[in-house]
């Protein structure tokens, strides 16, 4: 079967470090073009264009595009690419607002093209195993702990703490995406405490309370914090009503279930994204998941804001 | 045809002033029971219960319920009522978070019951006429002006300016619901400035910038403000690319189109809600519209916060 010819739109760090290698190493895709506004080097001999309309025009036989820009312009880009007959891939967060995600889904359907909006953390083998282990069970206790060092992961990125930058929910959406993937029942934000540096708009930390309607909310909690130096913590602990205890750690790469040897998945998130994208293309089927992003928007809507110490990089 | 037997859950001001009379005067419904936690008087001889589970148990032949509680508990109530085999009506905002709205929709589908989540302002004849007038056109200029006096409409309601109370978006969602009803193309929040009293969590005013991808965002604006004394202003002005100019005023009750006599609808929002609910019940068809609420959540997520003068009732 011929490979799908794919172009990357937006060639920043994540496209360079993750998408491009995953595509190049995939049996299903051929990296045929890159649109790179900032004009940095493109890998090997891949044709590179300054704008995506130029790319769409010059490499007319692209089957698909991976839209790797910042979230703000994604809806417009997605609409243009769908109108040009391309299938589209969007990694988290899928767009600048949740309303835009629904629009992308509708346009893909109207165009008869595939839209795949996904979240890299969901593509860990350990996350899938956790979802399987929780199927049919009921969660009694949930503790999300997502603590990392903003200076280490986002040095100098002032926009990320500005309005529309999502603040701590930029990494926090990874935790939300694991939650919506593994929880055996729907989960909602019941309250949120947002800690906002005196000189910023976005939260640098958040305490979340969740609800399932099946357990007291105080047993379903989340702590997100960007002020953690030293070891980084990306963990989700779950206890079910029938006594199963499991812990996802390393951002979803590692699963421990009491009484079993740990499952440590390979660093395989982006290759798995492209495997699933190929399956969806083979089946002409879209998959647009707005649920993790919706939890983020809900947290902002319900959030109580507490000012904290000013933050500088 | 026999009337649908309906119960009201939550018998506060809006249920008493709007839902109950609309039901009593409807040819399609019979007001058969009321659940009224606060225990105020119920109209005429309608059976009244202290809790909705008690109502569902004692008046087992209810066809439907109108859930008129504050938004927080609505998802749980909706889930319980659907599980008990009841069709449900929810007026704005449909639930406490947007994620919960999708859950209600899924549960109704799974239960084979009708869920109708609607917004009263959409039920004005003038709003429907505006939507018809804009069909197939392209909006060039949009100005939403929603200015009212919080002390007049919400005296002493501190919760409305607290976290989760939605602030100015409590009335502002009415404007959003008209927008999503009349706009001929999808509309998104592109930025929001939220004005938050120094002693409160919720915005008392907001400047909104919208986007359609078809016009410069600066031509698509909204101003919401709860600090307006004197005359109250609930207006939406629209100009299309082909020169049509229309103004909705009085919260959607009045439509003026340049060159035509004004259309002034009757005060008919809630009767129209129940007419449409009856049609949906006749057709066993749900209609769950989350779009206006989604715009509100998006505005909170993108919103830049500016502190303003402390507010006291």
Task: List the main descriptive attributes of the protein structure presented here.
27% strand, 16 strands, alpha/beta, Rossmann fold, homodimer, Dihydrodipicolinate Reductase, domain 2, 313 residues
Detailed description of the structure:
Chain A is an alpha/beta fold. Chain A has two domains: 114 residues, Rossmann fold (3-Layer(aba) Sandwich), CATH 3.40.50; 157 residues, Dihydrodipicolinate Reductase, domain 2 (2-Layer Sandwich). Chain A contains nine helices and 16 strands. Chain A starts with a strand and ends in a 5-residue tail after the last strand. At the A-B interface, helix 3, helix 4, strand 8 and helix 9 of A face helix 3, helix 4, strand 8 and helix 9 of B.
Ends distance of chain A: 49 Å
Averaging pLDDT over every residue of chain A, what do you get?
96
Assembly status: homodimer
CATH topology of the largest domain in chain A: Dihydrodipicolinate Reductase, domain 2
Q: What pattern of helices and strands is seen along the backbone of chain A?
A: EHEEHEHEHEHEHHEEEEEEEHEHE
* Beta content of chain A: 25-35%
- The number of helical elements of chain A comes to 9
Quick one: CATH superfamily of the largest domain in chain A? Dihydrodipicolinate Reductase, domain 2
Largest binding interface between chains: A-B, 35 and 35 residues
Reported CATH architecture of the largest domain in chain A = 2-Layer Sandwich
Share of helix of chain A, binned: 25-40%
**Any idea what the radius of gyration of chain A is?**
20 Å
């Amino acid at each position: 079967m011929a490979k799908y010819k794919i172009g990357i739109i937006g060639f920043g760090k994540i496209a360079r470090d993750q998408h491009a290698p995953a595509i190049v190493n995939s049996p299903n895709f051929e990296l045929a073009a890159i649109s790179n506004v900032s004009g940095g080097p493109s890998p090997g001999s891949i044709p590179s264009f300054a704008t995506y309309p130029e790319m769409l025009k010059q490499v007319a036989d692209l089957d698909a595009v991976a839209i790797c820009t910042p979230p703000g312009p994604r809806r417009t880009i997605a609409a243009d690419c769908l109108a040009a007959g391309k299938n589209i891939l969007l990694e988290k967060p899928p767009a600048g607002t949740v309303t835009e995600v629904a629009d992308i889904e509708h346009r893909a359907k109207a165009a008869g093209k595939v839209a795949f909006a996904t979240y890299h953390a969901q593509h860990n083998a350990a996350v899938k195993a956790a979802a399987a282990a929780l199927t049919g069970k009921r969660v009694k206790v949930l503790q999300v702990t997502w603590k990392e060092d903003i200076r280490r992961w986002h040095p100098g990125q002032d926009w990320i703490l500005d309005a529309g930058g999502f603040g701590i929910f930029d990494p926090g959406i990874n935790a939300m995406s694991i939650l919506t993937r593994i929880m055996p029942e729907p989960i909602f934000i019941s309250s949120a405490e947002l800690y906002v540096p005196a000189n910023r708009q976005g939260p640098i930390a958040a305490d979340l309370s969740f609800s399932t309607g099946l357990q007291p909310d105080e047993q379903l909690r989340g702590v997100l914090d960007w002020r953690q130096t030293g070891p980084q913590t990306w963990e989700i602990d779950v206890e079910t009503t029938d006594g199963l205890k499991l812990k996802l750690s390393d951002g979803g790469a590692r699963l421990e279930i009491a009484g079993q040897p740990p499952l440590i998945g390979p660093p395989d998130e982006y290759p798995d994204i492209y495997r699933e994208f190929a399956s969806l293309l083979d089946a002409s089927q879209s998959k647009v998941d707005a649920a993790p992003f919706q939890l983020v928007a809900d947290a902002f809507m319900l959030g109580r804001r507490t000012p904290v110490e000013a933050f500088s990089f």
